[in-house]
Amino acid sequence: MPIFQQNRTMFKTPFSAAYWRCAMKEFRSLRSLVFAALMIAACIILSKFSIPIYAGLKISFGFLARALCALVCGPVTALVFGAAEDTLSFFLASSGEPYFPGYMLTTMLGTLIYALFFYRARVTVLRIFLAKLCTNVMNVFLGSLWSAILYSKGYLYYMTNSMVKNTLMLPVQTLMLVVLFGALVPVLYRMGALPNQAERRLAFI
């Protein structure tokens, strides 16, 4: 029996050793690895599309596939997914910017954050908001550091710009994840890809 169909009521918290044992088994599950590979492909495709809003501010879609992979595959797979996705995205869909391993670290940590909030947990609007808030805060501080290292302007310049953009995008990105999870969580549960906490539809708290 696949790991995601076993022990449906267990391993709900990252503070449990059993949670991490389950995450390791998920990493060795062929179906989970195939799903993660599909999400990498989705990220690469989605990176080619964005909706410009104003002055460099745009709606992108790659984070949706990252969050979905984290939800289904867990934190261990999420770290490997982040490294593979960022590297492959650079070589297959680079926009001309130099390769920098710091951005890979940001992707890995962002996907890990999603996994810690969503994997084996009852997904709610509040959890989605908190997960997106944490990833956006991380993007502000780490992304600004990488930009300051690579380019000419100082850290505070990049941090200010990034803080404004991430603050404005937070409600939009949260809503996008709410819509995505609201549609797919019941489907994934019926497919056996999610444990028992996903049986009910998306809740607020």
From TrEMBL:
Bilayer-spanning residue ranges: 33-51, 63-83, 103-121, 133-152, 172-191
InterPro entries: ECF_S_folate_fam, ECF_trnsprt_substrate-spec
Signal peptide start and end residues: none
Key words, A-Z: Membrane, Transmembrane, Transmembrane helix
The protein, known as: Folate family ECF transporter S component
Species annotation: Pseudoflavonifractor intestinihominis
